[in-house]
Amino acid sequence: MAIDGVGNNPYNFLNGTQQTSNDDANSDPGALAMSDFLSLMTTQLMNQDPLKPMENGDFLGQIAQFGTVSGIADLQESFSSFSKAMQSDQALQGSSLVGRSVLVPSSIGTMAPDTPLKGQINVAESVTDLKVNIYSEAGVLVDTIEMGSASGYTNFTWDGFDSQGEPMPAGVYQFQATGTVNGQNTAFATATVARVDSVLVGSGSQGLTVNLAGIGSVPFNEVQEII
């Protein structure tokens, strides 16, 4: 889902920023403009040693150096504004995630009477006896889901009832997926479905962080799927 960050064209500000920086440079009495540089160069030529005059290459080289420094400064200004625009765009996109569910790597999840615990198992090698053990937050085994044969990414759902068929209280639960591989009991990587409660927009190189119900803060780049 794409959200426009700055009007119809998020890059319009680049031209505006460059004009602003030029205006600021002209209005700043301490700034060295191209006209000032040329004046200094003219003075230098008039007062140079006639026995050792400045060569054309040296003269052009100094002009090129000044232009390069000025261009880099303008480019930095443009990228700074671009970064701020991208952060605003991230904030808009992040706000659309609140209330949605995402799939993230985890071995814990939340269960409520109207919201079963859902997760995914990455079965790296085919197994015939895949099972998911559900534990309370304190680590007590409350139920086991027999999955049977499985291979690849396999989804599972726990309805919130223990092994005796009694409903468990809503809250946070742990889970572990295991199966027999080459005669050895092997644990597999798991992920869980969680609701996004809020989104934190980072600064600089720090991107979005999503705060998930029952799990906590997770970097947005770890989100595997938006449901």
UniProtKB/TrEMBL annotation:
InterPro entries for this protein: FlgD, FlgD/Vpr_Ig-like, FLgD_Tudor
Entry annotated with the keyword Ribonucleoprotein: no
Record-annotated FlgD Tudor-like domain positions: 89-224
Gene3D superfamilies membership: 2.30.30.910, 2.60.40.4070
UniProt keyword terms in alphabetical order: Bacterial flagellum biogenesis, Cell projection, Cilium, Flagellum
Superkingdom classification of source: Bacteria
Domain FlgD/Vpr Ig-like: 114-180
A Pfam family recorded for this sequence: FlgD_ig
GO biological process, one term: bacterial-type flagellum organization
Function description: Required for flagellar hook formation. May act as a scaffolding protein.
UniProt family annotation: Belongs to the FlgD family.
Entry protein name: Basal-body rod modification protein FlgD
Species this chain originates from: Methylophaga frappieri (strain ATCC BAA-2434 / DSM 25690 / JAM7)
Lineage, highest ranks first: Bacteria, Pseudomonadati, Pseudomonadota, Gammaproteobacteria, Thiotrichales
